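Tutorial, part two.
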Amino acid sequence: MEAVLAQGETLTVLERVVVSPAVGVFRPAPPATVTAEGELVAAGQEVGVIEGPGLRVPVLSAFAGFHMGLLAHAGERVREGQPIAWLRSL
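Running the prediction step on this input gives:
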């Protein structure tokens, strides 16, 4: 999912956050699928999942950029809209 800008609008802040799509417990994606800090994350790439009773929702990055770190710990209870990871956009 790419950011859509209105005519004349510009983005001057390079940092972006990946947010939780639901309430539950955050589980990071396995190391084979989550890039290390500083590596490229593609738009739509899964960085983890939110788990709850009968719930398993993927956490997907809406932006492409360099993975700068996770903002939520494995097993942490998160709320909808809470920042999970941050990226530096391309």
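The CA atoms of residues 45 and 74 lie 18 Å apart. In part three we will examine how such features are distributed along the chain.
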